[in-house]
Write a structure and sequence with these properties.
The chain is of the alpha+beta class. The protein folds into two domains: 312 residues, no CATH class; 159 residues, no CATH class. 46% of the residues lie in helices and 14% in strands. The protein contains 19 helices and 13 strands. The strands form four sheets. Strands 8-9-10-11-13-12 form a six-stranded antiparallel sheet, sandwiched between helices. A three-stranded antiparallel sheet has the order 2-3-5. A two-stranded antiparallel ribbon has the order 1-4. The longest helix has 29 residues. The chain is globular.
Length: 504
Amino acid sequence: MTTPPDPTRPAVTQVGATWHAAHGDETSSLRPIPHPSLEDRVALGRAARKQVGRRALGAWTPPTDRFDPVALIEGQETTRVTDLVPIRHERMLASPFAFYRGAAITMAADLATQPTTGLYVQACGDAHLANFGGFLAPDRATVFDMNDFDETHPAPFEWDVERLVTSFVLAAREREFDEVTTRTIVTGTTRAYREAMAGFAAMRNLDLWYLRLDLDGLLTRWGDRVTAEGLAQFRKRIEKSRAKNSLRAFDRLTEVVDGEHRIVSDPPLVVPVREMGGDPQVIITWLAERFRAYRRSLQTDRRHLLESYRVVDAARKVVGVGSVGTRCWIFLLLGRDDSDPLFMQVKEANASVLEAHTHRSGFANHGQRVVEGQRMLQATSDIMLGWTRSEGLDGHERDYYLRQLWDGKYSPVVDAMAPETMLSFGEMCGWTLARGHARSGDRVAIAAYLGDSDQFDGAMHDFAIAYAEQNQHDYEAMQAAVQAGRLAMPVHAAPSPDEQRNPS
């Protein structure tokens, strides 16, 4: 359910209201589409700068009546699988950086109290650095892009930038980089965003739409920043990630049971339907029916491809940090024969954490919201990406989105990043975020707001430093809640951050 508008939060500007009226929902095609001139779009960006100056975005001081962050997290967990929630707490408490990954809801509430430019885009909603990386495009090229869209929703562009740069401050602190190095990384990330937006503002619409950052482009832009050894390690990781596909998942995640391939049990992280109680065939049949309903969200050729596979097994799977406790499944399908597997992930979709602070979603199905947001922001998306709505075995109706489980995914290894590597990675993220925003928002107006100076870069650094401190306080509040017995933890002892980084 959408939270009612809060009369104490800043009003949505006319710019934001106009964007929402013309974009990003199922009925937008019925409305007239405005086509302002270039001059008017530039004027729009400059007017936003007069309304909220770039330096003003750098201020963060928590209000005296700020919400209880633990209460927000608890409220988010009321609809989740109860026995999995302690795993979420454990993962979030691994470090301040891990807490930040799971606490998009608290940052969204904080950003809503700040002055805003009103320059709306399709926001990622959770643009921290761990949600950027590589994967295989449909043409099997390795591309770099955003890869998590659970919280995507129309919002002011700076909210994504602020979440991104704060994640780099926290990562730099985890690597024990000094303040000068941290500032260089953060301002480099923001500068890459600003300069990329200026470039995109001058591009033709179709050229921007076709633009993507593939492996060759990545190495051309940033390859000379990395040592020969670092470049060799990167290429090795990319090659390893390319092999992370359904065949690898088949090898790693299945076993033969009574002559049939079945998903390996690893409770509580992976629980096959055969271990969930009741008649496994009843659950499999129910899941297969839900899976058939999802096919209607695919275009015809992809539906035809999917229908050449049959569902043979399924399991509940724990994923991510902030998503732990949502209902997530993996499906094992087989095609031509046992050597032709396909693994699909089914993930519950709830309201975006941004929705309560902007506008109600224009999509009746939150799975569709995630999918449409992903298609808007990514240069290229999984061909099996789709959505469905399903009534669960408990009688509750929920929204889901589906995608391939493994498809050449490459994730950043923060613990191994040297300063120059983190700077390059930050610039990649900044460029990529700008491209997504440029596709979905008014890139000319945003570029005019950002300007040519480094004022925005410095403001984002100031905000990120201040908000990293806020994140530390919230992390400590969650620690205190666990110690007081307010939040549950798994029965086994949670490893310390040092133990997680350096397992014996």
